[in-house]
Amino acid sequence: MQYDDIVLCATEWKTCHTVYCGGTTMEQFAEYLKTDIIVMDNMRSHHAKIVKQVLDESEINDLYLPPYSPDLNPIEKMGSKLKAYLRKEKVRIASELPPAIERAFSTVRASDCLGWFRSCNYVQ
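Request: output the structure for the sequence above.
Response:
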């Protein structure tokens, strides 16, 4: 079973995430976009027409990262922290994965996000 995670890591002292069983669809991603500003990699669903429509209607500024540039993506840095936590948990049963992901996200602090944004040169 595959789980897809949509993550928001903000510099305004908040984080949030959503976990979907299976892949993330265009519709799910478009619903998630109803936030502030977004930096996205080149995942296919990020370029869907519905995504552009939601961004335009919500007056959300978008920034697409250059291809193959995980060093510019703060979510990649967050992913490293989450994966390290999950490796320690050693979850081997699919039904136990979502609660483990919740616990992993509970370890992410706003100060972590700010550090990741700084390391990617998005903020001073």
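The longest helix spans residues 74-89.
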